[in-house]
Amino acid sequence: MESSESGPSLGPLAAPDRGTERPSASHNQPSKHREHPPKSPRRRHKGTRSQQRGAGHEQLLWESERLRLPGQQEHLEPSGSTSDTAESSPKRRAHFLHGPYPATHFGPKACILPNPTSVMHIQDPASQRLTWNKPPVNVLVIRKIRDESLVEPFKELCRFLVEEKQMMVYVERRVADDATLSKDEAFGSIRNQLCTFREGYDDISDCIDLIICLGGDGTLLYASSLFQGSVPPVMAFHLGSLGFLTPFKFESYKTEVAKVFEGNAAITLRSRLKVKVVKDMLQRTGQQPSSRETQQQEHNGLLPHTHTNSEAGKVTLQLQVLNEVVVDRGPSSYLSNVDLYLDGRLITSVQGDGVIVSTPTGSTAYAAAAGASMIHPNVPAIMVTPICPHSLSFRPIVVPAGVELMVRGKH
To answer: Region labeled Disordered — which residues (predicted)?
Structure first.
């Protein structure tokens, strides 16, 4: 996930004319102030250059307005010489300079409600609203496991979605097989209508319209990990220990869920990191990965995102994460020593316990505990934070969201 900023279009600014004299208020009465001599031709020539600078600034503003975002309709050209100047200008880039263009579709039916193109060129994050191409039908309910206090809210929410909203509710099989739910005879009719799935085996990414989480921030992070492609809209109710990502209170769940189903609900876009893990198995072990390792990856649900290059002997794992990526020393008692590359260029070497590469969402988690600053979720950036660095100069750094970071370990 990835954000669009917006703001009203700017018109041309008129530069002040420094070479024009102000008329006096009265021609009959003498002025009390000392009269100044008329301005010299050199002074008037300076004013003319000021007008030229103003005209150049007007041209620059119009050219900035002509930048069109992907998917936007082309606007009418401004009249006058500005249009002629804009037509002769070189070809402009059609994407953001500070980061990738954000996603506008979430799941099979949800998308961002577009703003009128005649009013705004770039959308304000505070004005982003959710709309539905088709009425939502399938809802995924994720509940925090091993928390008995969430059983009653879970049953109440499922009953509301099935009986009142006529929704198709999906839950994890281990949640549906919970002994507490099996013993409740009153909930038996609702339980029989629930659709179940197994993590790592059943693909539900193309059939879920909305995700509702009951728990804390960890529950929302787990729900995000289930969707490695497009993520449906997520509603997170605060029923856990931490609530950075869970803004809704369960006491008003009926009202909040109804607002989302009706559309035009406020949303917050959060970016994710696309991670590619490459391990050189031949250099480390001198042999190809065993079949047991492959079976373990398949059991953990990682095989669909795993690619093997038999010629180079490298196993590549691709994931999308919401919080952060941590490269640390693990159980080793020695310091880790890795090189940090930015778009293929060596930036620095990190010697310490490791390095954290986090999103703005993850800047409030492990990175904040390691001494990094918190980043607003609407800021397109990536935070790089060292873990206990063996250096006095290495501090957390922020890089644009569109760059490619590579952390390479030294052998």
So the answer is: 1-59, 71-100, 284-308
